[in-house]
């Protein structure tokens, strides 16, 4: 009878492929380095091939090792999905959901929605992770996250998505800026006004570009790594920027000497929504969470269409 590797062997191989170091892979697997090393050797003996080349400083997976690690990862995801299906059937809305979100959403929305989610689904627990969209989607695809809360549009092929609410962009400038007193900003007023944005690997950058290109607005040479840095630069008169409503109502600009003004038109917005693996065994739970958050947002978050509160 053919000998089959067990799930422990597969998990060790996946951890080794990810960390490329026996010590780090062992730490991630919550075992000793000798235990993980012995497990990899058992796997190699069972398969009759070498999956890793060992050196004193690092480990390199062989070509067949890479192939097997990808297969092992897919099998472990299938097992996780099977367990999720069982959990869903035995006790819906229970257990832990690994939830990821992005820096331009998490700090401003999570403190508001997590208490509401805990009240609505008291048996659910959320393990939170913040990262850029690409990294979150990679972790989601590899089974290290269950659900992500991100901004759209974004390429999410192979995933189920649910939009929750729209989030308008607003023009932010120093209080001394010529447009600081304008009741509303038209895109034509931004021509020749270089706008500072987040760095290119932030989705907020890619979402703002079509708006700038449509109005022939220039992008400033300076870019920031975070919204707090961007706001500090604006307050110092180094330029203007676009900020999402969510960050503004979340207090991001509080205490800063900047003016915030609405922008005319319907193109000045992003959508905030959820995404999860299409084959996930907890899809129904995620849809119910999405339905709840959609209703919550209608009641708690001011729609992007309204003028909102602007300040000098």
TrEMBL record:
Q: Which organism is this protein's natural source?
A: Pleomorphomonas carboxyditropha
Q: Which family does it belong to?
A: Belongs to the LysR transcriptional regulatory family.
UniProt key word Transferase: no
Q: Name one GO molecular function term.
A: DNA-binding transcription factor activity
What domain of life? Bacteria
Alphabetic keyword roster: Activator, DNA-binding, Transcription, Transcription regulation
What PROSITE patterns would the database entry show?
A: HTH_LYSR
Which residue intervals define the domain HTH lysR-type in the entry?
A: 5-62
User: What GO CC terms are in its UniProt record?
Assistant: protein-DNA complex
Q: Which residues form a coiled coil?
A: none
Q: Which Gene3D superfamilies match?
A: Periplasmic binding protein-like II, Winged helix-like DNA-binding domain superfamily/Winged helix DNA-binding domain
Question: What Pfam families does the record point to?
Answer: HTH_1, LysR_substrate
Q: What SUPFAM superfamilies does this protein map onto?
A: Periplasmic binding protein-like II (SSF53850), Winged helix' DNA-binding domain (SSF46785)
User: What's the protein here called?
Assistant: LysR family transcriptional regulator
